[in-house]
Amino acid sequence: MLDVVTFGSATKDTFLFVKDGELKPGINKHFLEVPLDKKLDVKNVLEFTGGSATNAAATFSKFGKRVGIVTKIGSDEAGDFVLNDMRRRGVSTDYIVTSSGATAFTTVIVSSNMQMVLLVYRGAEESLKKEEVPLRFESRWMYIGPLTGESYKLLPPVVEYCKANNIRISMNPGSTELSQKLKKMIPILKDVDVISMNDEEARTFVGYNNDTKNLIRLARAVKDIAIITRGDKGVMVANRKYVYNAEAFKTKQINFVGAGDAFLSGFINALMDEKSVEDAINLGSYNASGVVKAYGAKDGIADGYPKQKLKIRRVEYESKQA
Prior knowledge:
Elements: E1 2-7, E2 11-18, E3 22-26, E4 29-33, E5 42-50, H1 52-62, E6 67-74, H2 77-88, E7 96-99, E8 105-110, E9 116-121, E10 139-144, H3 155-164, E11 168-171, H4 175-179, H5 181-189, E12 194-198, H6 199-205, H7 211-221, E13 225-229, E14 235-238, E15 242-246, H8 259-272, H9 277-291, E16 312-316
Parallel strand pairs: 1-6, 1-10, 2-8, 6-7, 10-11, 11-12, 12-13
Antiparallel strand pairs: 2-5, 3-4, 8-9, 13-14, 14-15, 15-16
């Protein structure tokens, strides 16, 4: 019996630190300014594993949980890189599918003013098919990250399997799921215990310009808890009775890759340990604050519960609100 199975992407992430080229304000938030028809010098290169499934698995494993991972990689150097890292972290790779295609990768360009541009190649991960995933694992929880391409079609049968086998579900939806909008996703979400997304995603998915309204609507759509992360503004959490507001841990942010996975996996880990919602918020926030101050999605993962407690405001609300 596993404590948690993570389902989603597995990538090799390469961070390229360039000498020249800055992210500057533009009509669409920002643009990377680089010279054309010239070489751009790279002053440093760092390599990590990434992707929602490996990121979450790393947190759970570090807290002593028995973890398995469902994803698809290629039979290439990047795939070996993922497998070796997961095994080193004590994560079961029994449910990782290896194909003849290429492993997904992300190239992260870090500009001279320390901002980032991500170039993403989805690779093998988006070709995962139902017949390649043996739905016979025993677990307490399922952590579902963003799914793309063919792998998105696995969402209904995986949720149905979890429902039939009393496996609790947490979900961190990506662009494919979010593009479906809330109303279309309700048949899936009604069997999801915990859902998490950031404030911009919630506005797109739910449709309100008000974070509280979006949060409560999400909480009403799932079985238990909805989460909206707000970067350095903190996090909002709701169940069917209360809305919780918490500030973020103060930290110097140099990285945003993996922050969402760090929060949700920390939050779910606390629920596994039968902690309160407040404790879950505290651990999720603490875990995310460590990840954003180190490059990659795993080097800053927490190794225990924080001694510091965030100030969390809890407000009761009408369940029919929003």
